[in-house]
Amino acid sequence: MFDLKNMEKTIVLNRISFRQMEYFVSTAQHGSIIVASEKIHVSPPSISAAISHIESELKVKLFIRQHARGLSLTTIGEKILKECLFILGQTYALYELASEFCGLTQRSLHVGCHQILTPLIYSDIVHDFNLLYQKDDIRLLDGSHDELMNALLTNKIDLAITTNLQIDHNIICFEPIVSLPPHVLVSEHHPLAKMKSVALQDLFQFPMILHDSLYYKDYCTDLFRQHNLVPNIKGTYKNYDLVRTMVADGWGYSMTNIRHRLEHTLNGKKLIRLMLEGNHAPVSIGIATISSVNLNEVTEKFKSYCKEFISEYYHDREHNSSNFTLISSIEKT
Q1: Which intervals hold domain HTH lysR-type (predicted)?
Q2: Which of 4, 21, 23 is nearest to 57 (CA)?
């Protein structure tokens, strides 16, 4: 512990700034200075200089440079990462404490939502939450999973509504709400459209339209790989609505874990949803926050309401399906 009595005798150090710690945390998360630079909009030389300063100050090596895998943390680097996250979390909590004491809890609530989920649930959640708590100053970050994780680590959002794919549980607290099995989408004219359920063995011979979402693409292809099958991927597309439209137009089938309110595409054509036979790993939807940060009262209330809304949203649509799992029972607050 730092000894205040001997402070005057202590050698003056080139202290590590919070900003430098944030640069280090982002680089550790992404395993690359270039990727971290793109995510936090800071030049690579600035990030590199911050990391070098920390290494020089602490007299340790934080990263090992691997040509194929980018940067990986050293053993001491992993420990320093945890300490930096703790320090940053306590700093953020300090501002929250001061805000609450001064009666500033009406500040903007910053919420991240996975871009696939945003059009389905976000507007309803915010609208209803505002009616209950008169909280209309809510800011949205509509982004990919990686964008949401980076925003959490840099304190740009208070929480994220996302999936459990690729969560670092050493840093992120993920509270699952619903567990959703994979299912298959086909057009109403597809040869499999009359079936209630299909197996992977029924699918691999048909062309597949794959949603090119980070981590979800690997999730889908892994389902086939685990059964020694290779899907016939006709095309991959980042726009999920485009994937749905192409399926409805007969280009091929697709797979998803997310169920829409209406099984129609933007061009008005119908989609058929088929259950996927077998025991397959589900995808969970839940709330992600920083483990080391204590949430203020408003954020806690919003998190609780998100849990309640999402559980009811999927319960209303899936209560007749044995594959749907409500992970946690939510009490109304």
Answers
A1: 16-74
A2: 21
